[in-house]
Amino acid sequence: MYSSRLLILSVQNGVLIDFSYFRTQITLSTLKSLQQCLERARDFAGGSVIMLRALIRAPAASFSCARRLLHSATAPLVKETGLYGFDHLKTAKGFQRMVDDAIERSNELVDYIAGMPSAPEIIKSMDEISDTVCTTIDSAELCRHTHPDREFVEEASKASLRLNEYLHFLNSNPSLYHAILKAEQNHHMLTEEGLRAARHLRIDLEKGGIHLSPEKLDRVNQLNIEILQLCRQFNENIITDPGHVDIFPASRIPKKLHHLAKTIHRPSSFGSKRSTGPDSNLKERGFRLVTEPNTLCSILQLASDAEVRKMAYVRGNSVPRANLVVLDKLLAARHEFSEIMGYKSYAEFALKDNMASSPEVVLSFLHEMSKMVRPKAEEEFKKILDFKRGESGQLFEDLEPWDEPYFTRMMKSSAQNLDYSVVVSYFSLPQCIEGLKVLAESLFGVKCHEIPLGHGESWHPDVLKLSLHHPDEGDLGYLYLDLKSRKGKHPICAHFAIKGGRRLSETDYQLPIVALVCNFSGSNFASVHLHHSDVETLFHEFGHALHSLLSRTDYQHFSGTRVVLDFAETPSNLFEYYAWDYRVLRKFAKHSSTGDPIPEKLVQSLLGAKNMFAATELQRQVFYALIDQALHTMQPSSVKDTVSIVADLKREHTSWKYVEGTHWHTRFSHLVTYGAGYYSYLYAKCFSATIWQKILQQDPLSPAAGSAIRSKFLQHGGAKDPTVILNDLVGNCVVRKQNGGIIPDITSLGEEMQLFYSS
Prior knowledge:
Layout: H1 31-45, H2 94-114, H3 119-146, H4 150-171, H5 174-185, H6 192-207, H7 214-240, E1 244-247, E2 261-267, E3 283-290, H8 293-302, H9 306-316, H10 322-340, H11 346-351, H12 359-392, H13 404-416, H14 420-424, H15 429-444, E4 447-450, E5 464-470, E6 474-484, E7 494-499, E8 502-503, E9 509-510, E10 513-520, H16 532-550, H17 565-568, H18 570-576, H19 582-585, H20 600-612, H21 614-633, H22 642-653, H23 670-673, H24 680-696, H25 703-712, H26 722-730, E11 735-738, E12 741-744, H27 747-752
Parallel strand pairs: 6-10
Antiparallel strand pairs: 1-3, 2-3, 4-5, 5-6, 7-10, 8-9, 11-12
GO molecular function: metal ion binding; metalloendopeptidase activity
Main location: mitochondrion
Keywords: Hydrolase, Metal-binding, Metalloprotease, Mitochondrion, Protease, Transit peptide, Zinc
């Protein structure tokens, strides 16, 4: 999911563009300009800059059609339009015009709100400001990630920077805050959703520091800039310093890895000094392998040479070293910010308005999960160890961290008789898109029709556009699909909510528009075949898309995925189940040559392979979440460094060794983007397991079940409390109250993974 919490001073998540879930990318070279924006904003507002996260708080990218921004999405037969259907974007320079119009309309709304209209008009007008601002920023972000034309990318970047400057004026405007206070006081004039919007707007403004003294606000703003710099530096270091290993001789690298390697040479140890030249027989040939995460994963799975795996593991988990210092500074800045805001730690600040509500609640949940998964994870560890010893004949050989991917892949393939090249033959990209259509129609009675794109609307010939049409309700929204990889395209799989839904009048509703972006490889669209893990990813992102497309909230502030962080991943995790269910797969997974449906036995083998080491993977996710919590509750006076904290947690919560000298967490980008919020993935895993078992497992394509999912869950977006939504959908078996917060019930997940043992 792609996040559109786009305020450049957002300290909760730093620079927020991922990953689902998304982050605004502002280069270090622009930070001086951003500091100048602070000064200009003081001139605009006569005071310190305040973060108005509320106005664009959405945790999923969204832009909407403001009154002055013409959109042609509902007119598919338009012959000529601009990018995403915006007439301004017929050329790259049109982004600047979009900014002009967005600022003009927002200024009109700010003036109107300052006149203190009625409570409903205040909320409606602030929601339109959000809608207007997000239109330009989020269309620019989608463009930056996907457009092949460099001019469009550059103009989109300029537009984002310019509008971010304007946001400082909004962030520091006390009239908006006072208006929200008035609206909340006159709650009798508001609907239930309107009152919830007023409360959320006020809380978000206060979390930005609008209530602080000028001196404290100045320091908060300085810290925001510092945090932005550090977040950006952390991510840049990951990209620029992926590490590499040089392997000699070349024969140590299997052919399956050659496409990832660069050929290198070194003088042969037995060569004559008189022989020169790269083609000399006295030059030894080798391979250089970059240890960025995807390549490292392939090396660890496919390299039979244990020393090669070790070299790659150690190197890949020891870069970028510069991020050790960057992370220390980031954690210190976040802690100082939180103290100014009146909190004991950054985790306490970040979690206050989530379902969990506090670090104590999150830690109790994570420790419960760790305890539940430990016995089976230890069993799996022993199985891997025994297999390794059986393969090597060394009865006292230890299991090393670089052994896990290699031996688990061998064990899965052997036990389940899996040939992964056969699996992909059933998942051509066109057939997988048919699978999405099957889900939408079977569950929700919605047909996905491919519709023509207007001239100039698309950014690449591979892009498709679907309309979601209900026979009784008409068009429900529009979905762009940009699923194939290409040169220059950002390597992400994400859902971009281009346009959030909102009620315009008693009879008119602004339809949502979303883009689903992936990077599946193939020479042309029809030739793309997906690994089964890619199918799961596609269905995950489609879950986000359906959340956006099927929600029907009065305010775009709550549209679709605009919910608290520890609830946002639930629909996407739920739809992953469909990628594993034979009753669903047989309807679209057809062999590319014969057209035969995927055999049930093959699906069972895939499930068997998935379940073989599921506890180990779950334990790893718990470990990651514990790292995130520990680092964001750490006090500056602590004598332990981040490396020691990570090492101790690994020893305490897993069976795997910590390798001295490594610091894997220095490229754990979620520490930047989801600071103190990584546990949300585990919340979603528990919620979705309960929903699947209680509502969908018996008949996953049941229209009755789909109706319940839509009417009781998806249509509400963030307009209802997530606890109310969950209890209404599946009863009181899905959540538990604990120490003032809400945690998921873990029973369904534990049963699914067979983690409970009878005494």
